[in-house]
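tool=predict chain=A
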Amino acid sequence: MGPELVQSTNEAIQKIKARMQAVQSRQKSYVYMRWKYLEFDVGDKVFLKVTAMNGILRFEKKEKLSPHFVETFEILERIGLVAYRWALPPSLTVVHDMFYVLMLRKYVTDSSHIVDCETLGINEN
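tool=predict ok
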């Protein structure tokens, strides 16, 4: 009973490993069909994704009301294939200035994003 049990267990383990490998490669092919390679140039404007960050209080809001992306930043330098360094305003000096490419989203310049202060009717007081 001993050697047969060990042999049957080893065969079962090999079958399980082969099936796991097949499932993983199938899932990998599904992911890569929808995968978009993100690349930014130096000088591009990007949004920073902050939903997955701990300490989101740095960006003035907490939990449900927290923004998914914060203001636009300019890319200063590309570091390797998947990391970028960007210009930080003085108010965000506690945030690291280098992020993985999936934490960034490209900002497409749109003239409708610019608001004229005079049309808003801002009062002096």
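Strands lie at 45-49, 69-79, 83-86, 98-100, 104-106. DSSP finds two helices and five strands in the chain.
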